[in-house]
């Protein structure tokens, strides 16, 4: 970044820090040496997003991250505060169902498949020495052989999983997101169209995250308590022990009351962004502790002596997964209705899927959660059943709940549709590539024709345009997932049979197809889960794999945890305050001006940091973005925060803003501000490659750079020099809303305490790709 082998950290720590060249460390004490050149700094925040290989485990929480994105995708809404509140509440409820689904899947594996079914069957347990002490034997039953005690012991696994999620959420908040933002000055703002990212409490959501963490932890523990105690309560209804029966009824009532309280806590309050809210509610401490007490009572109740109790079939409560899927579908439909109303009120052209992008993404989060939980249950069931298909091949091992088998059966259908979409995209890309050939020849007119070179450039441009088809793909897959999920629910509840079970009057061909799809889907979701984990681990070792998931990861972990507290931590709650504090303190101490340049995700961080500055400081800053997804991705998917009004306000309030982009870039693009401001911000598309054939300056074939190495283009240096020249005190500030570099007046020096005021050049390169010299997935400079 600094183009110098000798650098030094001037502020920050090992996680994120600001660096300078060794020769520039004391630049403020030698302003005469920097009269004609800037002081370059680099802000490095790669350890916030990559770090060591253990971070790959965060990919297991991908559904939580995706549903958190849905919260921020709501359409713009002016004067509809109630609808905005309903939208946020519905997303938080969808997130709550995902936590319950994850813990229920752990209960299905530990309690139902292992402790209830396998350990309750002598043939299954005898093949596994680690289960023999739980299984009934011919010589007499031991203490652990009673079903309730087996369930109580197995409950340790899902309870430990819930505790681990709570611990990770608490620890990551303290490590990454507990940074105090810059105190806002009481200065008048120019207008009210600025993004919500400028609010004082936007990057400090401690109160909401703590409330949600308490509620989700309690929901997980109550789910475990219900799984342990429900079967015992059902047994006691037909037993002679009235005291146990009464205790079971009271415990079920307490569980129901606890579920209501959790839902109320989740629904009652959203984010408080207008102020820096550090007050923690009493519920943060009392709710998880109360849930632990209830779980302890449930374990004691289930472990009580019941000599005549035997386990058979599936664990009672296997309808849970169907109920969760139904609730998720209804919540997504309600969310889509609210999003459509919001978009209809103040529609922004280009918003993905007509404003229902958030509900579509929430549906994908539910689908990911279902596939991951179903995949684990199916694979464990197959393993315990010695490789058979539980519930289908006529064995005594019933396997996972019926609804999971039906969900597995529809997976092949979904994959066929996804494959068809991929084929259509390939055909459209080839068609676009042929159209781009004429544009390439026009851009490099006068060059000696090289058909292969032309096709390669045209193909790169066509593939870069695939990003713009993502909304359509997300919409189709989400709608199909909702339809197939409803089909699976109807099939599971209508027949109470797994797809491969024989039904009276069913043709043999239909039975064979159902059996094949169920078995294939079971293997596919299990294989997909394993592939997902291994790919995530590889992404932190292989730079090429890291590029593939870098885009989603950078976008997903940029946003605060507003819907799900167990989502991966938000790196922007550390990076944005870092940049804001650096800019604010440097300008206050030196009286200087600076350029913040940001590449890819770094441009989003730069814009977010500028919104947090006071108006007087923003007027001393110029912004240079390149390869920026501010409009192409963020403006379309997150219109309420990066819509045209917000970007227009940013353009008006900074000294100047210039944006560079290429037609071969799959991530970045023009900002596209409406009216006369658009050409002021967006430079004409840069040529890529810089040279078509071999030239005096490029004797070897020039590479197609795509999303990277914007600094290699001479235009980058010209635009940067123009911005630096504009920032010289007295250099035409009356034209600061128009940015023609060639019109900048000759610079002149001004003094502060008798010395020239310094200028800073802040570069922020935070692409999702890897710089081999850095060995990290994110780089930034400030």
UniProtKB/TrEMBL annotation:
The entry's keywords: Membrane, Transmembrane, Transmembrane helix
**What are the transmembrane regions?**
55-72, 84-106, 151-168, 214-233, 245-266, 287-304, 324-342, 354-377, 406-427, 470-493, 520-537
Start and end residues of each stretch annotated as Disordered: 731-782
This protein is called Integral membrane protein
Specify the species: Streptomyces cavernicola
Organismal lineage:
Bacteria, Bacillati, Actinomycetota, Actinomycetes, Kitasatosporales
């Amino acid at each position: 970044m600094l183009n110098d082998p000798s650098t030094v950290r001037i502020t920050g720590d090992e996680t994120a820090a600001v660096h300078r060249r060794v020769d520039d460390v004391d630049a403020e004490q030698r302003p005469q040496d920097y009269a004609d050149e800037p002081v370059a700094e680099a802000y490095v925040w790669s350890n916030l997003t990559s770090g060591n290989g253990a971070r790959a485990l965060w990919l297991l929480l991908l559904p939580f991250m995706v549903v958190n994105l849905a919260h921020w995708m709501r359409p713009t809404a002016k004067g509809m505060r109630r609808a905005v509140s309903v939208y946020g509440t519905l997303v938080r409820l969808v997130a709550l169902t995902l936590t319950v689904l994850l813990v229920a899947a752990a209960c299905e594996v530990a309690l139902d498949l292992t402790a209830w079914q396998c350990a309750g069957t002598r043939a299954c347990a005898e093949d596994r020495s680690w289960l023999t002490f739980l299984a009934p034997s011919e010589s007499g039953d031991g203490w652990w052989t009673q079903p309730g005690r087996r369930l109580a012991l197995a409950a340790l696994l899902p309870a430990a999983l819930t505790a681990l999620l709570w611990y990770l959420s608490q620890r990551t908040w303290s490590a990454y997101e507990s940074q105090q933002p810059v105190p806002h000055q009481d200065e008048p703002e120019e207008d009210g169209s600025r993004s919500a990212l400028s609010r004082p409490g936007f990057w400090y959501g401690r109160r909401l995250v703590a409330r949600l963490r308490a509620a989700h932890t309690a929901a997980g523990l109550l789910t475990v308590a219900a799984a342990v105690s429900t079967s015992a309560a059902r047994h006691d209804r037909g037993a002679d022990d009235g005291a146990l029966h009464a205790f079971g009824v009271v415990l079920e009532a307490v569980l129901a009351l606890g579920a209501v309280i959790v839902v109320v806590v989740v629904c009652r309050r959203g984010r408080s962004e207008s102020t820096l809210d550090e007050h923690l509610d009493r519920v943060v401490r009392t709710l998880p502790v109360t849930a632990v007490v209830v779980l302890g009572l449930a374990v004691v109740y289930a472990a009580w002596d019941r000599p005549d109790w035997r386990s058979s079939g599936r664990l009672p409560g296997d309808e849970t997964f169907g109920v969760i899927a139904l609730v998720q579908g209804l919540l997504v439909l309600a969310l889509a209705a609210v999003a459509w109303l919001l978009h209809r009120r103040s529609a922004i052209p280009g918003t993905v899927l007509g404003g229902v992008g958030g509900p579509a993404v929430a549906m994908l989060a539910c689908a990911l959660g279902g596939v991951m939980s179903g995949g684990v249950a199916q694979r464990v069931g197959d393993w315990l059943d010695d490789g058979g298909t539980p519930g289908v091949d006529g064995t005594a091992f019933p396997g996972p709940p019926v609804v999971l088998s039906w969900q597995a059966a529809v997976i092949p259908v979904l994959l066929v549709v996804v494959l068809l979409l991929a084929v259509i995209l390939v055909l459209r890309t080839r068609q676009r590539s042929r159209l781009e050939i004429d544009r390439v020849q026009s851009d490099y007119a006068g060059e000696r024709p090289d058909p292969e070179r032309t096709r390669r450039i045209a193909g790169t441009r066509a593939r870069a345009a695939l990003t713009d088809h993502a909304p359509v793909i997300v919409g189709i897959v989400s709608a199909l997932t909702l339809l197939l999920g409803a089909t699976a629910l109807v099939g599971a509840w209508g027949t109470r049979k797994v797809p491969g079970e024989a039904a009276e009057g069913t043709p043999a061909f239909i039975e064979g197809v159902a059996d094949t799809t169920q078995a294939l889907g079971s293997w596919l979701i299990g294989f997909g889960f394993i592939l997902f984990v291994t790919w995530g681990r590889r992404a932190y070792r292989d730079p090429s794999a890291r590029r593939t998931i870098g885009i989603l990861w950078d976008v997903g972990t940029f946003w605060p945890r507003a819907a799900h507290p167990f989502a991966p931590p938000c790196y922007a709650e550390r990076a944005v305050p870092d940049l804001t504090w650096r800019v604010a303190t440097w300008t206050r101490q030196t009286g200087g001006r600076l350029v913040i340049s940001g590449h890819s995700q770094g441009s989003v961080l730069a814009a977010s940091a500028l919104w947090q500055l006071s108006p007087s400081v923003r007027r001393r800053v110029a912004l240079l973005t390149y390869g920026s997804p501010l409009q192409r991705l963020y403006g379309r998917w997150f219109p309420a925060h990066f819509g045209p009004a917000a970007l227009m306000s940013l353009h008006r309030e900074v000294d100047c803003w210039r944006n560079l982009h290429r037609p071969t870039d799959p991530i970045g693009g023009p900002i596209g501000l409406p009216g006369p401001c658009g050409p002021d911000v967006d430079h004409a598309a840069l040529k890529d490659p810089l040279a078509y054939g071999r030239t005096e300056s490029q004797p070897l074939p020039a590479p197609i750079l795509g999303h990277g190495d914007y600094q290699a283009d001479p235009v980058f240096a010209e635009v940067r020099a123009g911005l630096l020249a504009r920032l010289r005190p007295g250099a035409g500030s009356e034209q600061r809303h128009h940015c023609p570099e060639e019109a900048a007046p000759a610079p002149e020096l001004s003094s502060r305490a008798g010395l020239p005021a310094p200028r800073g050049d802040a570069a922020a390169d935070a692409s999702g790709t890897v710089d081999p010299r850095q060995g990290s997935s994110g780089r930034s400079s400030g």
